[in-house]
Design goal:
Elements (H helix, E strand, L loop, with lengths): L2 E5 L12 E8 L3 E3 L3 E3 L4 E3 L7 E5 L12 E8 L8 E2 L12 E2 L15 E5 L10 E7 L11 E7 L4
Parallel strand pairs: 1-9, 10-11
Antiparallel strand pairs: 1-6, 2-5, 2-7, 3-4, 7-8, 11-12
């Protein structure tokens, strides 16, 4: 099964120190893969690291299912600080490719409210499988690590979506 990685930070962007959470992935509905395998909507739970919020989870490839399939996510905050175990229900559609990857690369850019004003800052062109970026700010070729946060001044509009 594909491996999906990511990190969970709280609302102020801090690390998870002293906080408990569970991330719950669930298929949008039962589905079938070629070969006749039926996949129910059984949940997959992962507990992020309390130190840095990182997580790794094995999820079923959704891009090979017979009908449009994606994972829904719920984030359940546990512990005394969470009061009555608060739950977040983002309306994200996570489509998992055969090779897995980072969670932020699996969002559908077709979702209402999706931030299309993201800017890729790099020497290299953004990968074509990331339709989340609408602009590419070409970094300073004399500073490949972009330690001075400067660019070449070239801004490109991307059309990978």
């Amino acid at each position: 099964m594909p491996v999906v990685t990511g990190s969970l930070h709280d609302i102020i962007g801090s690390r998870m120190t002293g906080k408990e959470a569970v991330i719950i992935f669930e298929l949008n509905g039962p589905n079938i893969r070629s070969g006749g395998d039926i996949h129910p909507t059984e949940t997959v739970r992962v507990t992020p690291s309390e130190v840095d919020g990182s997580f790794t989870v094995n999820l079923m490839q959704t891009t090979s299912m017979m009908t449009d399939a994606w994972y829904k996510i719920r984030i359940r905050w546990l512990g005394a600080e969470a009061g009555a175990a608060l739950i977040d229900f983002p309306d994200w559609k996570i489509r998992v490719p055969s090779g897995g990857g980072r969670l932020d690369q699996m969002f559908s850019a077709d979702e209402p409210g999706f931030n299309r004003s993201m800017v890729w800052v790099s020497l290299s062109t953004p990968p074509t499988n990331l339709p989340t970026f609408s602009l590419w700010l070409h970094s300073d070729p004399d500073d490949p690590d972009n330690t001075n946060y400067q660019s070449s001044g070239k801004l490109y509009e991307l059309r990978n979506a």
